[in-house]
Amino acid sequence: MTQPDNTDEAVIRLFNVSKRFGAKLALSNITLDIQKGEWLYVTGPSGAGKSTLLKLFYLGEKTTSGQVLAFGTNMNRLARKDIPFLRRRFGIIFQDFKLIPNRNVFDNVALVLEARGEPRNMIDKRTRNILRHAGMDKRMDAMPASLSGGEQQRVAVARAIAGQPEVILADEPTGSLDPKSAEIIIGLLSAYHEKGATVMVATHDRDLLARKKGRIIRLEEGRLVEPSTGEGGAP
């Protein structure tokens, strides 16, 4: 069983979770604890269920059976009106970035803070600071369509951490990126992790697994299997 010893500090817990899309079983009988402040990798081949697993945590998808508890809340019982407040506790990095195409770089990041009702001066200061650390301060006025894939991913990471969430969910954050962008992105996530955030990364990137230590779990055909090596090694 790929569980840490202490479940008292678990921020997310899964109990016998399965997910079906029609006849396809995407996840099968997953039981897992994710600890506060942990860096966790989810690995496995394409189609193994990595993205689906991450979506369950913020109700991007709902379980077919089993239970997901996030911050002590049973997600199956969460009222619709409370879902936006739960999602504010997560920072989500999507494979396809999901930047707002008609907003510039600055606004894509600032919108997260505006939605929280933060003061304007704080929004401006934090957004500029995050974009500077992401190496995007020179492109704050640029539109997403004018950015490279690596630049778009840097903005997506900046947006994910702007609201200071408790948990970061990153779906292939370094996939197909140039080495410089990948290094900046891992640096941003690592710095935020060191402040106490929980980080969960779905990835195929063996270089990433070697560069940043963390617990590794592996999915195969929707089933959770033991990793073939310990922390910090590629499976």
TrEMBL record:
Residues 12-234 form the ABC transporter domain. GO terms for molecular function: ATP binding. GO terms for biological process: cell division. The keyword DNA-binding does not apply. It comes from the Bacteria. It holds the Pfam family ABC_tran. Keywords: ATP-binding, Cell cycle, Cell division, Nucleotide-binding, Transport. This is Cell division ATP-binding protein FtsE. It comes from Desulfoluna limicola. The gene is ftsE.
